[in-house]
Specification:
Layout (H helix, E strand, L loop, with lengths): L2 E6 L4 H12 L2 E7 L8 H9 L4 E4 L5 H10 L3 E6 L6 H6 L1 H21 L4 E7 L23 H18 L5 E7 L1 E3 L18 H10 L5 E4 L11 E2 L1 E3 H16 L7 E6 L5 E2 H12 L5 E4 L14 H7 L7 H17 L4
Parallel strand pairs: 1-2, 1-4, 2-3, 4-5, 5-6, 6-11, 7-10, 8-13
Antiparallel strand pairs: 9-12
The structure holds uridine-5'-diphosphate-4-deoxy-4-fluoro-alpha-D-galactose.
Amino acid sequence: MKGKILVTGGTGFIGSHTTVELQNAGYEVVIIDNLSNSNIDVLDGIERITGIRPAFVEGDCTDIATLRRLFDEHPGIKGIINFAASKAVNESVQKPILYYRNNLNILLNLLDLMPEYGVKGFVFSSSCTVYGEPDVNPITEDAPIKKATSPYGATKQISEDIIADVIKSGSPIKAVLLRYFNPIGAHPSAEIGELPNGVPQNLVPYLTQAAIGVRKELSIFGDDYNTPDGSCIRDFIYVVDLAKAHVRALDRMLQDESDNALEVFNIGTGDGLSVLQLLDAFERSTGVKVPHKIVGRREGDIEKIWADPKKANDVLGWHAEADIDDVMRSAWKWQQRLRERGIM
Ligand code: UFG
């Protein structure tokens, strides 16, 4: 065993895939999740894939007493990966207090307790949203941080600053900030995947739900952007590749491969794909047609952004490997599995 890792939000989309990769790599995982946006059955999926059921605490990381109990009951935790957060951009505009309270209190509680319980490494789920609309693509980690366009984005920026300040103050911890681009797809086994509450806000779950008939049609938000086909461009990163980046970041921190107490990495493929190109990739790779229509722009959308992942490639030795057609097929297989299970 490589060591015990606390995964907050571990039954969520990225958290569950990361738990699988951590266990595959020999880490022992303890999950805490309040199940506000995920389901306890995810643990069965993780167990079916890896043969190991992670320890699970149902609880809320905004409650420091719950966290203390967890650390007392699971001594020897070496690292934390913090996925627990509210993450719907639109909702954050409607409920800013909820977003600031949740996302910042969770972070503060964890950072506060780490030295006391001897936890050395912290991986934070950040987002390319911290860059706003880039001046140049692909974007590197030293690009300027622009004013956030939503409270959700602001919590990511503030969280990055809090972590930097805590490390500057001499706290005996190390941290890695991973700026994710757009995570998509599902585990190839279709045992785990993305299961948004209610109407999906993100592109791929909406697309697969339209393909299977849960939604009437996919709306493409705008075809008049300054891009080759007029739709927005993103860097769609396979969730399994993204999960593996966390394992590399932890390995590096816990094995003291670097003297830097704080590091930041873009986690993307390095390729921009437009919304229409992604739709085309789905239809091509699955043979399934997706009913869709072009509608007006969605407020707050960035026109185009994709990563320069060279730093993660060179320093972490991590590369996005998945082929987009395989990724699209994984998303479709997952949607079909939800149908088989009568969930969707
Ligand atoms: N889109 C559509 N139709 C839809 C949904 C999305 O055309 O039904 C378009 C959007 O306009 C955008 C692209 O697909 O151009 C991607 O949109 P997403 O909502 O999937 O993702 P965003 O790029 O908006 O990113 C947001 C946050 C990120 C966060 C990410 C995943 O800004 O911080 O969602 O939660 F990581």
